[in-house]
Design goal:
Blueprint lengths: L24 H4 L3 H21 L3 H9 L20 E2 H10 L16 E4 L9 E4 L1 H18 L6 E4 L8 H12 L2 E4 L6 H14 L10 H10 L21 E2 L12 E2 L6 E3 L4 E6 L13 E7 L9 E10 L11 E7 L3 E4 L2 E4 H8 L12 E4 L9 E7 L4 H16 L3 E7 L13 E2 L2
Parallel strand pairs: 1-11, 4-5, 15-18, 16-17
Antiparallel strand pairs: 2-3, 6-12, 7-8, 8-12, 9-10, 10-11, 11-12, 13-14, 15-16
Helix pairs in contact: 5-6, 7-8, 9-10
Bound molecules: zinc ion.
């Protein structure tokens, strides 16, 4: 077991010329064949560490695929036969060998931080970061910020949760590493906490307005405070990406939080020198063709807290088409979590598609759109059951308009129940939109 701390003694980047196009020109514009050779070498190092450390969970996975020696994996082309590892594998491992499980490459005392997942999909799992792992995330984040056009000295803000959930701390660290001015407001779990954020933004006026899962909460609480969320607070409604969909930005806090970022072209450039990202058919373990949806499977490279063939149970698709910006990395799209994938009336769709339909009915979007859908049971016929809050207006007419919007967008019949404003649960981070009957 490694016992020494790894990573840089200080986390400070070398200054960049503001005129340079890329944060890390060498690695972001590397010849793809050379990048692949480096990935092959990093993968061989990872497999060697699995055997030599040893890391029992990954060693079992490798041996079940017939890998008896580190030399049996020569490179990326050998990955498809290695079984996938899912969140439940990590949970089972932590339950069997508490509290950290048998999938770690080092002792907790080599790390500088531990945290847990939010637990939205079951028992929270434990994430540990060495100083090197933090440097790895911060450097990746810096490329993403630079691509977006941010530069050191900008005042930015976020409302990520903190403490045991490590997300807020990681994002704050990445901002500060890059040289941004980090204005961290509390997640708007209550109206009082939301007001703290609103007052801070009015006072300090961030250069980049807040965007995040809880944006609707700030619109809602601004209205309660008789403030205009746009004119008085400075909030904006972000435009949604067109085409194939949402850029693939993250592989989760437990795997690789700052996986990629958008240059403005469709998708997100992926920090491929630090991770192998694959869109995988879970039946065969093989990659699906570019442009098709598969399971997001990530293998982190040269990270202390590594994961091998980690299946996030989310949909992604990849493109290897050259990008006009000049960066040579592949780009990825995110298709949502499988747990938010709904099946009804012979159709499959994401909860976010229902939200997109409801947004076209203006009456239910003021001051914020609040809704839930009851998860349809397999093979259960009948309309989708959707509940939507309404502040004021003709309930029957607006319920009809919502149902028509869902029918038009999804081709599925819905029964929309209008409920009182404030009657559905609120969350300061990710709101649950799919509920059980
Ligand atoms: Zn690009």
């Amino acid at each position: 077991m490694e016992t020494a701390l790894t990573g840089p003694e200080t986390l400070v980047p070398t200054p960049r010329d503001p005129a340079q196009k890329f944060w890390d020109p060498e690695l972001q514009t590397l010849d793809p064949e050379e990048r692949r050779r480096r990935q092959d070498a990093a993968l061989r190092r990872l497999v060697r560490r699995v055997f030599e450390t040893p890391v029992p969970l990954f060693r079992r996975k490798l041996e079940s695929a017939g890998v008896k020696h580190p030399e049996d994996v020569r490179g990326v082309d050998d990955l498809s036969r290695i079984p996938l590892v899912r969140k439940q594998d990590l949970r089972d491992s932590e339950a069997a060998a508490p509290p950290y499980g048998d999938y770690r490459f080092g002792d907790v005392r080599c790390c500088v931080r531990i945290g847990t997942s939010t637990g939205t999909t079951g028992t929270p799992t434990v994430t540990m970061w060495t100083r090197r792992d933090l440097a790895f995330e911060y450097e990746s984040a810096a490329r993403n910020f630079w691509r977006t056009g941010w530069c050191p000295g900008m005042l930015v803000t976020h409302a990520h949760p903190a403490y045991l959930y490590g997300g807020g701390m990681l994002l704050s660290g990445a901002y500060e590493y890059f040289g941004l001015v980090n204005l961290w407001v509390p997640p708007p779990d209550t109206d009082e906490l939301a007001e703290q954020g609103i007052r801070a933004w009015m006072r300090f006026q961030p250069d980049i307005p807040f965007v995040g899962f809880s944006l609707g909460r700030y619109f809602e609480v601004s209205a309660k405070l008789k403030l205009d969320p746009m004119k008085d607070v400075g909030l904006r409604i972000p435009s949604l990406p067109g085409g194939k969909g949402i850029p693939l930005m993250t592989a989760g806090l437990e795997c690789f939080a700052c996986l990629g970022g958008s240059c403005g072209a469709p998708g997100a450039h992926l920090n491929e020198d630090r991770a192998l990202v694959q869109a995988v058919d879970p039946e065969t373990g093989r990659e699906v063709p570019d442009g098709e949806w598969g399971d997001l499977v990530v293998t982190t490279l040269d990270r202390d807290g590594a994961l091998l063939r980690y299946d996030l149970e989310e949909a992604c698709s990849l493109t290897r088409e050259p990008c006009a910006c000049g960066e040579t990395t592949i780009r990825g799209f995110w298709g949502g979590r499988f747990k938010d994938l709904l099946a009804a009336q012979g159709k499959r769709f994401q909860a976010s598609e229902i939200e997109g339909a409801l947004r076209t009915v203006e009456a239910v979007t003021k001051p914020s759109l609040e809704w839930v859908v009851v998860r349809p049971r397999a093979g259960e016929p009948g309309p989708l059951r959707v509940r939507v809050e309404l502040a004021e207006g003709d309930r029957d007419a607006i319920a009809g308009r919502c149902a028509a919007a869902i029918a038009q967008r999804l081709g599925a019949e819905a029964r929309v129940e209008i409920v009182e404003r404030g009657s559905l649960p609120r969350s300061g981070y990710k709101t649950t939109r799919v509920v059980d009957a």
